[in-house]
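Why do we bother with a discrete structure alphabet at all? Because it lets us treat a fold like text: something you can write down, compare, and reason about line by line. To make this less abstract, here is a complete entry for Cytidylate kinase. Read it the way you would read a sentence in a foreign language you are learning: slowly, and without expecting to understand everything at once.
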Amino acid sequence: MTLVIAIDGPSGSGKSSVAKAVARDLHLAYLDTGAMYRAATWWCLHQGIDLTRTDDPEVASAVTAAVLALPLVMGVDPAAPAVHVDGIDVGADIRTDRISAAVSAVATNLDVRAELRRLQRAAIDAEREGGSFSGGAGIVAEGRDITTVVAPDADARVLLTASEEARLARRATELHGDAGAAAVEATRDLVVRRDADDSTVSTFHVAADGVVTVDSSDLDLDQTVEAVLTVIADATRPTVQPTAQPGA
Ligand SMILES: Nc1ncnc2c1ncn2[C@@H]1O[C@H](COP(=O)(O)OP(=O)(O)OP(=O)(O)O)[C@@H](O)[C@H]1O
Ligand SMILES: Nc1ccn([C@H]2C[C@H](O)[C@@H](COP(=O)(O)O)O2)c(=O)n1
């Protein structure tokens, strides 16, 4: 049986860490769709496009044209999810503040979204069809619109949330080594402003019908992974059909 697992959530909710752990546990492939938007942003900047001016239709068209020609190779091994653009390993560079600050300008372009959605569905289908990393076991895909738009037919769909306070503290700890007031303030734009911009094109704060919410505010990483694995087990448990009784 092939499993497709969809996980969405806001910045810092733990999607990437949890999705990777779940994929490793279930021997599935892993698709980081946020990394695809980040790679597209890296490519636009590499092409010299000024992403502070995407309100200008000419700049927006240049972004679309660049992404339609994006030479992207996404690794789907959860133990080593590499990202290459035009043969260059951009895995580290796409995590820098330079990309985090600019990515929403690319992710809110609807033509870009259509193209990346096409690539994401192709990656999911490749795992369903058995020709790729998981040998047909399946894939965990995470992002902002996987449960609703990219794979609404997934076998299990999870919205991973956490309070803004928890998400800011996690990101501050990751980037600055502590969650004191100064570190949290330095992180606010990369979490809160980005989520506000991204929410104009995707709904990832409220679960759609059939999507199960896991609130990780008071859970550690291992507990969150366990909670998501339980949702998957519940969603994929075979339903027992009552057998007809003789003479009934
Ligand atoms: N339940 C948790 N408890 C504590 N820390 C967590 C938890 N989940 C994730 N983290 C930590 O929070 C940080 C952010 O997690 P992660 O990068 O997985 O979030 P994300 O939702 O993918 O964010 P983004 O969308 O911005 O990429 C990481 O340092 C991770 O180790
Ligand atoms: N399915 C997705 C995935 C990501 N995005 C956007 C939103 C973020 O600003 C950006 C980077 O994502 P992250 O690596 O922080 O998860 O990509 C989106 O719009 N849709």
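What the structure line is telling us, in plain words: The first helix runs from residue 15 to 26. The chain is about 50% helix and 15% strand.
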